[in-house]
Amino acid sequence: DLLQLSDMYCLEGLKNVIQAQLRIEKCHLFHKPCLDCSVGVMETVEIAHIFNFIELKQTCIRWITKYFDRVMGLKSFAAINKQLQDEILAELQGSLTIMICIDHLKKVDRLKFNTPHIKWAEPVHIVLTAFMDSCLTFIAQNFPVISQREEFLDMLQVRNMDHLGFFYIKVQTFVKMGKLFRDAATDQNISKIQKNDRKCMKNAF
């Protein structure tokens, strides 16, 4: 009610007080996830989205992406609206670097495996699948560098896994690499054809 009143009458001071209260009571000042703030941050990001608290919303999104393997498998994440889930996915995708992509890939694989395949978790699996695909694509695009990193070589030597996630990862990485190489070859062939066409036209005249 206070939020609606502060928004209706443009009471910026009251808005700031409410945001500070949300940071403390709901988000626990964004420390490491606990049972309460794992739910509280999800509630806060929706409030921030509705009332256009831009800075608070971005802080929530960054916190969720930082601890995605601990909070995105929860019902509270599945319950937030799809637009926010898409924004969180985009933040995750944008955070990928050569240094962390393998670690993120292992975390998302583990989280997918541990998240139940039931109705409430469907939005979670959609986001996790999209992020895993982004990780695999990033690895394929940067394969010459990533393939030399110790964590990638360790991943390829994993044995006695409890599930087939890493087998899927290995196969999909090489499949995506092959597609990238085929696309590159196709582009090169098209370029050659266009070059030959221009040459033929020039000779014709």
UniProtKB/TrEMBL annotation:
InterPro entries reported in the protein's UniProt record: BACK_BTBD8 (IPR043225), SKP1/BTB/POZ_sf (IPR011333)
Task: Give the matching CDD domains.
Answer: BACK_BTBD8
Q: Please state every residue range assigned to the domain named BTBD8 BACK.
A: 27-146
Give the species.
Nematostella vectensis
Protein name, as recorded: BTBD8 BACK domain-containing protein
